Input
Amino acid sequence: MKNWLSRYVSTAWMTGVFLFLYMPLLFMVVFSFNSTRQDAVFTGFSLRWYEALTRDTKIVEGFWLSLQVATAAGVASAVLATFAAFVLVRYRRFPGRTLFSGMVNAPLVMPEVVIGLSLLLLMVGVQNAFGWPQRGMLTIVLGHTLLGMAYGMVVIQSRLLEVDRAIEEAAMDLGARPIQVFFLVTMPHIMPAILAAYLLAFTLSFDDVVISEFLSGPGVNTLPQVIFGYARRGINPTIYAAATLLIVSVTLVVIFYSVWVSRQTRRRERDIAAATQTEIAALQPK
Amino acid sequence: MTSYALKMPGRRLVIGIPFTWLVLFFLLPFLILLYISFVDMGNDISPFKPIWDSNTGLLKLKYENYLSIFRSADGGGLFKTIYIEAYLRSIWYALCTAVLCLLMGYPFSYFIARSRASVRPALLMMVMLPFWTSFLLRVYAWKGILADQGVINQVLMALGFIDEPILMLYTDVSMLVGMTYVYLPFMILPLYANLVKMDFRLLEAAYDLGASPFKAFWLVTVPLSKAGIIAGFMLVFIPSVGEFVIPSLLGGPENIMIGRVVWDEMFTSNNWPRASALAVVMIGLIVIPLALYYYYTGDPAEKKI
Output
């Protein structure tokens, strides 16, 4: 009896929380197909907001800019995060390590407003001194990379800690140079994490409003900035259409990524099993 | 066992690249922020002025930038400025958000941790999935849901519960719904990670020794999950304090938080030194709870995750 009750409560609670988490997404998907600007009543199915979306030059331009910014920031973050994670995990002692570890982690807890403001001050200072760079795409990419690197580092660090150092030692003993060990042994091991770091940095960048608002110049607006501008003015179903497209693509990417990771894991397990089999076979007395 | 990393020929380069990058784009901007917060801008357009006397070479800091945060200029009392109000409001909202996330997320994480091991990854994936879709858009959706003519009001009116729409948008309600919604996963994940490792046989032992379910929960489960609660609380509280987007979209003029005030000071009043001073104080607000957090859990950088 009691067991039955507790199961009932737990199912109800979980359903409630999931409803809360998914309600806004569901809401936007449904109302992106609404035939009128109405927000609470579904008046009929139509694709007019999707059509409006393709005709909205600000959104389309913002989308391309965001795509470029996020790609650049994602790549830069993944590379720098790999460096930073490698340094933190493998060099336990070097001058300035505490400072380094603090600087890598700090953007995780810094309010974005503070990051945006301080980077803006740097950019303005540099621009005053050298007349370059103009605030625009480059400065946004720099800001996003700072954030993406911090998050990416956490992901790569946890994976790097799991790498079996004995394999690296074995590679060294077999005559591989350190650089070769990194590229042939360590990197393939942490590749899923590097990819995850890239995706995370890409998403953060593609989603960021605050840092972009501080660092973008006149006429340079990323997609979130355009949407933020619209959103403050009121209800606009065109945004729901954009949201629906985004929700669908994110879901697809997440599904593909998890399939890829589980397939990688299974293949590795199979390879290890096969290698062990061969080993055992070799040890058997003929 | 020494790592091959130590034999790396470009060791200095490997450390130097990320180090230089962080010094240039994290440390230096922060130092500039600190510098500007002491500048006397006067009527100049550029805040990049020396903070020392050009004749004597002595430092000439303008503490006024900080003092004006705490003391109102027109003879009002100490701590009665719009800045202090905004700070207090930000802390209040962040605390409420963290408490709401805990109330909602604790049972949820507990139930996930106690569900069958085979369904757990799928449930966690379902928690994470909204997190990967645009934060801005998810916040924006609440605008349509909570509006006077929005879904909730329309449904309640259609069902006959209310005659007039309830005012929810641009109030504390919409602020807290939005903030709880956005930060809930930050509470659920650390709590889950903690609860899933708990030895549930300890609960059975408590039952066997005659504890009621409530007592067992309060005396066994909660203390064991203390680290998870603190971690979740911090992960929600810290970003909530600096929240910028949610008050802009879901809050009214009454709900302005400190992030917005910094922005206005910077771009509307063009008072860069004061904006910088406000940001420095804001960092202080974050550092205090963070120091407490490290005190309780240890440095995460040193911990093997």
Chain A is about 80% helix and 0% strand. The mean pLDDT of chain A is 88.
